[in-house]
Amino acid sequence: MPYVTITTWEVGDGTDYDATMRNIRDKRLPALRELGASSVKIVRTSDRTTAAITEWPDKVTRDTAEAAIEAVRAKVHSEDLIRMTGEMKGEVVAEV
To answer: Which of 28, 37, 82, 94 is the most buried (most CB within 10 A)?
Structure first.
């Protein structure tokens, strides 16, 4: 079964949202693909917030990449000035 993580993020006040998203798109998303993610989508939810929806082939692939995912998240926080505000994850149970 595919496995999905949904994380929510907030860009720091005074930080250029578009420049931050360019960095995320160019550096962080390819890193997740290299770890085995099937797809990654970033959704802008307000002027300063986003949601990242990452689909993995299965839970084992996602769990195997856990330490590396944490390293990517740390770089997002320290280098891109964006902080994670929440996370949900689980197996896909229905899809159209």
So the answer is: 82
